[in-house]
Design a protein that fits this description.
Layout lengths: L1 H31 L16 H4 L25 E7 L2 E7 L2 E7 L4 E8 L2 E12 L2 E11 L2 E26 L2 E21 L9 E21 L4 E8 L3 E6 L2 E7 L3 E8 L5 E10 L17 E15 L2 E13 L9 E13 L5 E14 L5 E13 L2
Length: 386
């Protein structure tokens, strides 16, 4: 009877300790885990590997990037592209460091030309929230402090699906896209004890889904044979958080307004710059008060240059620089990102297929805080134009 009472008391202590650490884990893990995956996650930007190698500067004119639907006019007969992009992060906070590796497939696209209209279907990651943190802890059981290993794992993403159509009118390329947002987040918190015979592990998990709608418009103007101006806009439609079939909370899809310029007057070279405003604050109210979003002003510059040839087709080299405001605050402080980009485009079968590679060095900082995050990102894409 005493043993039974002790077990009940121990179990209650474990549950109480778990609930206490759960309330503290959010701030601790967000400070210790990652800066980039605050709130609902990190925005990869919807960039193709080619545009990523230029820092996103050509995104308004890039066929595969999920930015400007007018770029669908660049489809020849058809196109198919698949991208993979792992990231290697190091978080530094109060003299301690933590490393993690993230695997992403941030962009898949397929398109074809229907007479004078280019049609492109794409799926890109709007926000990615994938990370794992592990830290030592303790639980008081029967009046005795017992060491534990606490693990918090988040897996999931919010994905933007686009069906874009683009056509040419005189010196203009015009485009429109239907936008649907879907995805899910899975959160798992575990607590393990060193003596697994005496104490069982504690597990807590939850899963939520997302759905939303929007519209995107775009136009590219060929001012001259060498100079282009592009602009695009995504509307702020409804965005819901779901658990099973029930709507938990509602807010709005972030609107986006972007402009870009591109100059190709030098033989074998392209120079570009872009600027965008993203209304991430429209997502406020979708999560807890701790997941507060800010609007972002992002810009990038870069270039693409021919250098050498493979199978009589030019190899393309890319360089770029970008500066962004990340959407979610850390303890009410904004998080910024500066990144240097480089890439190469390698033809496989003349112009019918190509391999693109990009590398990104990102430095993420919190204004007025010691926490910082350094990351290496690698992107690879196979593009086929049958």
């Amino acid at each position: 009877m005493k043993r039974h009472s002790w077990l009940l008391s121990s179990a209650a202590s474990v549950v109480a300790a778990l609930l206490l650490t759960a309330s503290l884990a959010s701030s601790l893990l967000h400070a210790q885990g990652t800066l980039s995956t605050q709130g609902f996650g990190y925005p990869p930007g919807g960039l193709s590997t080619r545009s990523l190698g230029i820092g996103g500067a050509t995104a308004e004119f890039d066929l595969l990037s999920s930015r400007n639907p007018a770029s669908a006019t660049e489809i020849g007969s058809s196109v198919l592209s698949v991208q993979a992009a792992p990231e290697f992060r190091t978080v530094l906070f109060n003299g301690a460091s933590e490393r993690s590796t993230i695997q992403r497939t941030p962009l898949v696209a397929a398109g074809l030309r229907l007479k004078r209209v280019g049609v492109l279907l794409s799926a890109s990651t709007l926000l990615d929230r994938s990370f794992t943190t592990e830290s030592p802890g303790s639980a008081v059981i029967g009046g005795v402090a017992t060491p534990t290993t606490d693990r918090f794992e988040a897996r999931g993403a919010i994905t933007e699906l686009r069906l874009s159509a683009g056509w040419n009118y005189k010196a203009f390329a015009l485009g429109v896209a239907a936008v649907a947002v879907t995805g899910e987040h899975s959160l798992v918190r575990t607590r393990a004890f060193p003596d697994t015979l005496l104490f069982g592990g504690v597990l807590d998990s939850t899963r939520i889904g997302f759905e939303g709608l929007g519209v995107a418009l775009g136009a590219n103007w060929r001012v001259s044979s060498d100079f282009l101006i592009g602009a695009s806009y995504r509307s702020s439609g409804p965005l819901n958080v779901l658990r099973r079939d029930s709507t938990l909370r509602s807010a709005n899809l972030p609107s986006r307004l972007g402009v870009g310029v591109l100059y190709q007057g030098f033989a074998g070279s392209v120079l570009a710059a872009s600027l965008e405003q993203v209304g991430w604050s429209a997502m406020n109210g979708l999560g807890s008060d701790a997941s507060r979003a800010q609007d972002a002003l992002n810009w990038s510059v870069g270039g693409e240059f021919e250098g050498g040839a493979l199978r009589r087709t030019a190899v393309l080299w890319r360089l770029g620089y970008a500066q962004r405001d990340l959407p979610f605050l850390l303890r009410d402080l904004p998080v910024s990102e500066q990144s240097i980009h480089a890439g190469v485009g390698i033809p496989i079968s003349s112009e019918a297929a190509s391999l693109d590679f990009a590398v990104q060095r990102s430095l993420r900082r919190v204004q007025g805080d010691q926490a910082r995050e350094n990351a290496w990102g690698i992107s690879a894409a196979l593009t086929i134009r049958p």
